[in-house]
Design a protein that fits this description.
It contains 12 helices and 12 strands. By secondary structure, it is of the alpha/beta class. The chain folds into 2 domains: 186 residues, Rossmann fold (3-Layer(aba) Sandwich), CATH 3.40.50.1100; 114 residues, 3-Layer(aba) Sandwich (Rossmann fold), CATH 3.40.50.
């Protein structure tokens, strides 16, 4: 493992919500690093450490154009002296996605654009055959998920110190499954009552849940905890009600959640992941499903300005790369 992040990340109670009995707390993983934070940092500590031990010189990963995982891999891989490539697929065009894509290219990312997820395996196989070391989608392998087993242990220690009450529910965005699965495994290993609600951000939902359950069970075993599938199914649930039209598409609930998060918690959300997850956390509070709800904030809050200082302008992007950011009516 390579130590990258700054821990423990803070916990924060959200004030001013219209519920006297139920509490919403935030785990501030947006602050895992001063240059580029978010949930990818914890995973990459393990993944880049493994790459270093193997003597790797070049990485390849995969994600949508504007992927935070791709940007984080480009930044931290470069810090370790590694070349970074990525197979990129289309996603809806937003100013945020464009910024993330431009920042990734500014860090020296070598892009390999494809037009669909169906083309990804062949493109990845070619890069691996050329000598690149694969970092899985979202960094969500058993090894990457161990970063969130450690994060769950970190939260357990904060509960023991009295920094927050033990939450009955932890709400987090569910994409490739490594964060939700690792948290579920860590809570299982710590003997906590906390259940994880993974908020689905892409389709098909059943595949996301299956991936998270598989990673959760395998990570729990690696952490030395008993994790029969029945127990992991109870520990890790999925909420697909906030997906909307699909990956990258904003929703009315997400827009409302973004406004409330800024007003009451001072945090910014993105439409693809965190707005949908925070909307689900608010639903948990309003429905009074739990007395203490924890929202795990996974979006970096570090300013993008430094990463964009040397970034190419949109009109300077290669046409094949620029075409990956699709207008909403093209999706």
């Amino acid at each position: 493992m390579i130590p990258i992040g700054r821990y423990p990340t803070a916990v924060q109670r959200v004030e001013g919500l219209p519920s006297a009995r139920n509490e919403l707390w935030i785990k501030r993983d947006d602050r895992t690093h001063e240059v580029y934070g978010g949930n990818k940092v914890r995973k990459l500590e393990w993944l880049l450490g493994d790459a270093r031990d193997r003597g790797v010189r070049r990485l390849v990963t995969v994600g949508a154009a504007g992927s935070h995982h791709v940007l984080a891999t480009a930044y931290f891989g470069r810090q370790e002296g590694l070349e970074v490539e990525a197979v990129l697929v289309p996603q809806p065009r937003t100013p945020h996605a464009l910024e993330v894509l431009r920042a990734s290219l500014a860090l020296g990312l070598r892009p390999f654009p494809v037009q669909s997820w169906a083309a990804v395996p062949f493109a990845l196989a070619r890069r691996v055959a050329s000598g690149s070391h694969l970092i899985t989608l979202g960094g969500s392998s058993v090894l990457g998920s161990m970063g969130y087993v450690a994060a769950a242990r970190e939260l357990a220690e904060q509960v023991r110190r009295g920094e927050l009450p033990e939450p009955e529910v932890c709400v987090v965005a569910l994409g490739s499954g490594g964060t939700a699965g690792g948290l579920a495994a860590g809570f299982q290993a710590e003997g906590m009552k906390t259940r994880v609600v993974g908020v689905c951000v892409s389709a098909p939902p059943w595949a996301l849940r299956l991936s998270a359950l598989r990673l959760g069970r395998a990570s729990a075993r690696r952490a030395g905890a008993r994790a029969p599938m029945a127990a992991m199914r109870d520990r890790l649930r999925m909420d697909a009600r906030f997906l909307g039209r699909g990956y990258g598409h904003a929703t009315p609930e997400g827009v409302a959640a973004t406004r409330l998060a800024r007003e009451h918690a001072g945090i910014d959300l993105d439409p693809t992941y965190t707005a949908k997850a925070f909307a689900a956390a608010l639903w948990q509070i309003r429905a009074r499903r739990a007395e203490h709800v924890l929202y795990w904030h996974t979006l970096s809050s570090a300013p993008m300005g430094p990463l964009l200082a040397q970034a190419p302008r949109e009109e300077e992007l290669d046409e094949r790369v620029r075409a990956l950011l699709l207008l909403s009516d093209e999706m």
